[in-house]
Structures are given as structure tokens and as C-alpha cells.
């Protein structure tokens, strides 16, 4: 039961079909998720709140009806309703990936390789009055097929998820399993095949088995890709990405953000740089013309467990020599790896590519603060102390987004006499 939570509602659970799928299921589900990792998860309830007033604070509490008809109530919590698309107000966004969970008493647990997750969680909770929405962009709980660990993760982040929207993207540890329809044939999900992630956390996907979606938050448009499904030109997801980027009104929503778990843009992480690709094979070649054509401000990735920021870049070349302040004509997209949410850290290549402005092997997260239609602050903060270690500002007018640069203008038709 939900009291004082607004109008509308509903509930859902892991259906009998999904439950049977995980326990006996088809080839889509694997071990250990349907054997030793299985635990009956009970019901997962989702309430849909409608007719909320933008930016208004709402208070609520959740209860459970006992067999005798009495209700046991939890404590009150509150959330602020999101701004409407295009609304001009102070909007603060946090983005990170690959966090996982850990034991507060220091005891050992299965998959105990996310030592920074508690620092990230606690630092965000301490500053939650200055955060409006959170994006956890893949590799969520690292349950890897042991379902009870999703409960542990949910309890760890409850101080965040009970107060602000907690949006997720699909990563290899949520989705990948051989012959299950994922783009990569690994076993990182432990047989979960995306079922747990798409059930535990609601997102506005059209088809929840394909975890790509768009979401508007005030002056921001977010296009969230599913890097565990094919993104190449001609695919269903490629069409979604282009439509998401193409349909935003940049006069009302000037800040256009692309998100994926795996690095589809730029990273000098060791395992991406060792073969010289600096990204997933063919990813940049498939998507960079879309980022340039539709003038994507920033692209964020996880998967590599460190932090790195590029210059505004197109076709592997910096389009600006600035590092801390960007203004005027928009040209090129800034790519950011924020995979240091909590899991074990990853090394960089020895050589620093020309497009890499700042890189750090530490735990942390990114924060975007939009003040209005033309002014934005970017910050990278370490989880250990919440202090800023990298930042830049953007000041740009609508005409700067419209200005023609390479590969971002409609083709001209020569005049014939």
C-alpha cells in the first residue's frame, strides 16, 4: 500500500512465465540464475503517479496489509516531481557506472570486487539535496545470477532511490549470456539475461527486452542506448538512436546527452587501447556521424573502471583547443568514461591519445548542472571525499547549436540557371 503518494498506480511482479523461465527456462536463461542462484524474489511493485505538479515536493510512505487487515507502515519519505520537458530551472544530474555493492562490516561475499561502491553511495546520499536525478549506466549490482544480491544492492541505494529518479542502462553484467540474443556472447550476467534488471528497475522502454529508451528532464534530453544489443547502421536500435537525437527541440532542451554502458566513443583504457581501437569495434564508425549531425553535447560510458574526459572530438580529432570553458559554435562531442562507480579499477594505456584531456584511475562520478538554456557546469567528483577534480563550463546560445560545421548541415542544392 502507498499512502499520500499521488494518483494512479499499479503493481507487477516477476510473472509466473518469467519465474518459470529462470528456473527451468529456455536457452535465454542460464546458470547460476536458474539453479543455485535462484531465490523466489516475491513481488516487485510499481506505482505510476500521475498529475504531479512540476518541481513540487511530495511526501509518501509505504505499507503492508497483514492477514488480519491491519497495516504496517514504513517511515515517511519525499521526492520532488521532475520539471516538465523544456522547463527552465536549476537541474542537477549525476552519472556513473559499474558500482555494485559491498558489506558494511567488511565481511566477505560472493563477487566481492566492488570496494568503492559504499563510498560512492554514501557520498551521493550526503549531497542528495543538491541532486535531482541519477543515471547508473550499467553493471548495476554485479549479482551475476545470485538473485538475493539484488536485494542487497536495492537496500544499499535505498537512500537515493527513495528520493530521486534512479535511471539505469543495461550492461554486460545484466544482459550477456551465450545464444540469448545479446550482441556479445559472454557469460557475465550469470544467466540473468536482463530479466532481473528490467524487473527491479522500471524504465520507459518500448520493449523491455531491448533496453534502449529516451527520457526528458527539463532542459535535458537523454538518449540511452543498449550496448548489449546491435547498434550498427540499419538495426532497430540505430533507428531509435537517430530518432531520439533528431526529435528534440534544442531551443527548449539545449542539452543533448548520449549514454551507453560499453564505450561506443573514446577510451584509452588498456583493454580498449591495446589493439588501437580505443572503443568497441566499429562503434565509433557507426555512430559518430549521428553525434555530429545532431550536435550531441556529451556522451557518457561505463564498462572501463576509471575516469576519462576527451576534448570535443569528431573523427578522432579535437575540434577545440579549449579544456575548461566552451562557448560559441558547437562542433564535436565530449566523451566521458565514468566507470569508477565502485568495481575494481582499470588501467590506462601508457601513451595518452591527443583527444584525452583528463584521466584518472580512481572512484568517482560526473555531475551536470544546467542553470538555464545557455549555461552548464560539468564536474567530476571523487567518491572518497566528494571534491571536484575535473570541471568545465559551457556557455552557448541557440544560434551556436544551429551553426553549420562539418557533417552537421543539410546538403545544399546548387542553383541552376
List SSEs in N-to-C order.
EHEEEEHEHHEHHEEHEHHEEEEEEEEEEH
Tally of alpha and pi helices:
10
| CATH homology-level superfamily | Metallo-dependent phosphatases
Shape: globular
The gyration radius over C-alpha positions equals 21 Å
Count all strands and give the number: 20
CATH class: Alpha Beta
CATH fold-type name: Purple Acid Phosphatase, chain A, domain 2
User: Average pLDDT value?
Assistant: 90
Task: Please summarize the sheet with the most strands.
Answer: 7 strands, mixed
Name the structural class. Answer: alpha/beta
**In order across it, which strands form the biggest sheet?**
7-6-5-18-19-20-15
Organism: Panicum hallii var. hallii
Enzyme class: hydrolase
Biased composition (Basic and acidic residues): 9-23
Keywords: Glycoprotein, Hydrolase, Signal
Attribute tags:
single chain, 417 residues, alpha/beta, Purple Acid Phosphatase, chain A, domain 2, seven-stranded mixed beta sheet, 10 helices, metal ion binding, EC 3.1.3.2, acid phosphatase activity, Purple acid phosphatase
Question: What do you see in this structure?
Answer:
The chain has 417 residues and is α/β, with parallel strands linked by helices. The chain has a single domain, classed as Metallo-dependent phosphatases (Purple Acid Phosphatase, chain A, domain 2, 4-Layer Sandwich), CATH 3.60.21. It has ten helices and 20 strands. It has a seven-stranded mixed β-sheet, with no helix packed on it. The radius of gyration is 21 Å and the shape is globular. About 6% of the residues have low confidence.
